[in-house]
Amino acid sequence: MMRMYSGGITSGMRMPAFCRAEGGATAVEFAITAPIFLAFLYGILELGRAILALGMMTYAVQEGSRYASAHTASSVAQIKSVVMNSFVGIDTSPVTVAVTPTAMPDGTTVVRLDATYNFQPLVPVLGVAPINLNASSSGWR
């Protein structure tokens, strides 16, 4: 009688116990995929923070522009104060605001507001430099 080879281990050969154990397979898979998942999650959170900061900055310069248009006798310092007080939910220490009034030939004044926010990631990764976010708005007086 002829035996057919099935490709498996014959009954005479036994695998060592460490080759049959599957208990640590999940831990190895987790160790491989967890850093990728956490880096992806961190990137999403930092992108969300940057978009929040840009939105808040845009809102603040638009509020300053509305204030400058409605209060024609306001000074540059008052306009900057309105812009800085319009920030909600983010730190205003890395913000710089420039107010530039320009007289037009028809007697009106255009007030341009430029704001720059020095966005710093929560965790410095691979020496990533701070990102400068810019927003601007202008209004007529």
* General form: rod-shaped
β-strand percent reads: 15-25%
**Major β-sheet, in short?**
3 strands, antiparallel
Count all strands and give the number.
Answer: 3
Helix content: 40-55%
- Element order: H for helix, E for strand: HHHEEE
What does this structure look like?
With 141 residues, the protein is α+β, with helices and mostly antiparallel strands. It has helices spanning 17-20, 25-70, 76-85; strands at 95-103, 109-119, 131-140. The chain has a 3-stranded antiparallel β-sheet, covered by helices on one side. Strand 1 and strand 2 (109-119) form a beta hairpin. The relative contact order is 0.14. The mean pLDDT is 83.
Break the fold down into its secondary structure elements and pairings.
Elements: H1 17-20, H2 25-70, H3 76-85, E1 95-103, E2 109-119, E3 131-140
Antiparallel strand pairs: 1-2, 2-3
Helix pairs in contact: 2-3
What key attributes describe this structure?
141 residues, alpha+beta, three-stranded antiparallel beta sheet, 3 helices
Task: Briefly say what this structure is.
The chain is of the alpha+beta class and 141 residues long.
